[in-house]
Structure formats: structure tokens, C-alpha cells
Amino acid sequence: MESLGIDLKLLIAQVVNFLILFLVLRKFLYKPILDMLDGRSKKIADGLKCAEESEEKLKSTETEAKKILDKAEKEAKEIRDQAKSDAKQLHDKAITEANTKGEKVIKNAKEEALSLKESALISAKKELSSVISLAMEKVLGNDLDEKSRQTLTAKAINEL
Predict the structure, then answer these.
(1) What is the per-residue pLDDT for 53?
(2) Tens digits of per-residue pLDDT, 7-64?
(3) Which run of H or of E encompasses 152?
(4) Which residue pairs from 104-109 have beta carbons closer than 8 angstroms and sit at least 24 positions apart in sequence?
(5) How far apart are CA 136 and CA 139, in angstroms?
(6) Rounded distance between C-alpha atoms, residue 33 and residue 2, angstroms
(7) How many CB atoms lie within 10 A of CB 8?
(8) Helix-strand-coil percent breakdown of the chain, rounded to 5?
(9) How many other C-beta atoms are found inside a 10 Å radius of the C-beta of residue 99?
(10) Model-level pTM?
(11) Is the dihedral of CA 60, 63, 67, 69 positive or negative?
């Protein structure tokens, strides 16, 4: 080897130096770098897993929110429909009560009008009776007795 220009002692020293350097680098540099890279890979994998879980949770939350919103809209519609129904029933009841009260007022007014009419007729008959009696007295004089005067007065009133 010496003929090739290689010094065997130097070559062995360089190989030993290389192995020492390799072992030192492997222990103090290569292994920590690999551990750091493994840690980073694990953090990235955990981050991706967490992101996927968050995305799934977001989707399920959105789905649940949609269900809740749909349910709330359905309940609101039912409440609106019930309120409309109640309002219509109250309206119909108020109209019925108003019609009933109106008919009652009209009936009472008719009865009162009939009562006033009858009382006016009775009053008019009395007045007419006294007027007829006076007229018969003037025409016939005092010759009529009380019974005849009442009979003639009643007959005259009935003819009117």
C-alpha cells in the first residue's frame, strides 16, 4: 500500500477518527435530530387528528343546530296556527254574542214599543171616551143614564 501512496497507520487513524466522529455525531446530533423529527411528526399527526375531530364536531354541531332550528320553526308555526285558531274562535264568539245581544235589544225595544203603543192606545181610549161622553152629553143632553152612556161610548170606540 505504500507503493500506492497510502500510509496504513494514517488510514487506520482516519478510520478510527471517522468511527469516533460517527459515534459522537450519532449520539449527540443524529439521535436528537431524529427524536425531534419524530416528535414533530407526532405533533403534526396529532394536529391533523384534532383538526379532523374538530371538523366532525363542527359538522355534528351544524346538523344538531339545523335540527333545533327546524324544531323551533315547527313549534313557532304551531303556535302561530294555534293563535290564529284561538283568535278566530274569539272573533266568532264575539260576533255570536254581539248578534245575541243585538237580537235581545231589538226584542226588548219591540216589547217596549208595543207596551208604549198599548199604553198610548189605552190613554187615547180614555181620552176618546171622555170626549165622546162629553159630545153625547152635548148632543143628547143629560137624558142618558150612566149605563147607556158607557154602552154608546164603548160602541163608538170599537168602531174607531
Answers:
(1) 94
(2) 888 889 999 999 999 999 888 888 888 889 999 999 999 999 999 999 999 999 999 9
(3) helix 146-159
(4) none
(5) 5
(6) 41
(7) 9
(8) 95, 0, 5
(9) 10
(10) 0.44
(11) positive
